[in-house]
Amino acid sequence: MSEIEKSYSPGLAKDIEKPIKDPGIEPHRVRMTDKSEKHARTAEKQIAAMFGLSVVGAIIAVWGFFAFPIIDGDLSATRNNALWMGLGMALSMLGIGFGAVHWAKTLMPDNEVSEMRHQARSSDETRAQAIEIVKLADGESGFTRRKLIRRTMYGAIAFFPIPAIVIFGDLGPVVGDTLRQTMWKAGTRLAKDPTGIPIKASEVTIGSVFHVIPEGLSELEHHLLEEKAKAAVLLVRVNPSDLNEDPAKADWSYQGIVAYSKICTHVGCPVALYEQHTHHLLCPCHQSTFDLANHCEVVFGPASRPLPQLPIAVDAEGYLIAQSDFLDPVGPSFWDMRK
Amino acid sequence: MEKQLKSAKPMRRRPWAAGLVVFLGLILSGGGYAAATNVVVSEFGSPEQVEEGRKLFLANCASCHGTNGEGAIGGPSLIGVGAASVDFQVGTGRMPGQGSGPQLYKKPVQFTEEQISAMAAYVASLAPGPAIPDEEYLRGDGDPSHGGELFRINCAMCHNAVGAGGALTEGKFAPGLAGVTPKHTYEAMVTGPQNMPVFNDANLTPEDKKDIITYLMYIEENDSVGGFELGSIGPVAEGLFTWIFGLGFIIAITVWLGAKSN
To answer: How confident is the model over A12-43, as pLDDT tens digits?
Structure first.
């Protein structure tokens, strides 16, 4: 028994005696185009046809450019222009490519060449030489001998990248409290998106959904979209008897009118698919479903916490106002969110 | 026997005479009925029409909605839902409902225009509610750009940005809006059928609704700028198309490049 056989189980060892034979190189098959002049001429015509198609493609592209001019205000003209130019140019380029490949495969010489792989390992002589060079360099530079130089050099290399790491701090603004705060403040009126017209409680009839922004949002000169993305609210009125409210939060709603953040606590898509009769709010991205009648607790899907509720009240003129900012951070959950 | 009878009364009637009599009778009675009905349905909300609607309601709706529209085990109360609700629900064939499930489907309309109008008048007479919209809001001559903005804020999350429809929870869905008449679109907004929320006139003014209808008509009449819509359902259809046809084409070319010529 050989050494190899001993290291395998008897079942496998049997096969060692008859290893798969190297089938060698496939016999060379002569192409039809090499055997018959007729086939060669056919291939020649095919290649010429492909190059010809390429010319046709270029002409189609130019035709498309002029046949469907882009007219201001006519959107379908753009579509046809792009379609025909694209098709023509694709045909033009593919024609050249296919023609060239077909030419190489059918008519250019098909000599088959095989080359043996060489060993990756260097020869012993080369390896010994390399070691000699390293030793020589070490001896001449005194790298091993002069400890002071070696250690200060290590130190310099370790300290060198620190400025680069410090610079990373300047890559963006410091997050600060921005993840925890929105534009809502005590007394901010709830307004319609996109007009910014404030909403009266009497306008919100049962079964209604209002897409809400804080009043004054559209007057912001900076970071308007960022503020809108955090402050967007969905306002719904349901039959007050349908609401199953936590007594501690009972005064956050007004006669069945409730306001919740529209930003999903999973990854921040707008949750606005409201079903009037089930009181479910569905997020279209990952199907997180929130029960609006139950403080928007998660009833399905990957979201892990309820949508934050905006406590609302009514001011002297009958307009809906916020009692305060959201008490929970809006949008996707993050590390140290509860701090 | 038969032959005797025939010979006893030779050809007193031509064979088609009976058919002709029936035909004329039908024309006369049907025309007379139509004329009579026209007299009854003179004006929307007239006492005659309300009475006609009440009869239709009792015969077709009362088993679920109660004999006075107060609602019963099978169906909700219709007090205050308005004429618009009846016109939408019956006019799109959703009512009378067929079986119970997550959602009632659109199906062939079961009543004539006059009958729907009569039932709408009856339900409107129970309590004030949203009325059937005026023609001026349904012509589609509003501002499609403003309508598009409002549609994307208020409607697109369920109905898709170009009204292709979409899925909701537990078997419910927001239907596609292609082919829905402007009147039914308007009525759906004011009444909030099934699980759709209500968009009253304080939320979306009649002008806003007109703009939304204009937008829907615009996208239905005009080509999509981006080429093949693939159902307008977004990345799923587009991705599938790219994976199958785009990658399939690339694989086919790769195989051809590597194959030897014979």
So the answer is: 555 566 678 888 877 888 888 889 999 999 99
Torsion, Cα B151 B154 B160 B164, to 10 degrees, reads: -60
State mean pLDDT over A167-173.
Answer: 81
Residue A200 to residue B168, Cβ atoms within 8 A: no
Chain B contact residues (CB < 8 Å to A): 149-150, 153-154, 157-158, 166, 168-170, 172, 174, 192, 194-200, 202-203, 222-227, 256-257, 260-262
Interface with A, mutate which of B152, B257, B262 (most A CBs under 10 A)? B262
Count CA atoms closer than 13 A to A103's CA, side-chain side: 12
Judge whether A237 and A207 are in contact, CB under 8 Å.
Answer: yes
Percent of chain A past pLDDT 90, that is, above it, reads: 66
Q: Complex ipTM, two decimals?
A: 0.74
Selected residue of B79, B149, B195, B228 to mutate for chain A interface (largest A Cβ count, 10 A): B195
Strands (E), chain A: 190-192, 209-214, 233-237, 257-261, 273-274, 280-282, 289-291, 297-300, 312-314, 320-322
Q: For residue B36, what pLDDT band results from cuts at 50, 70 and 90?
A: low
pTM: 0.73
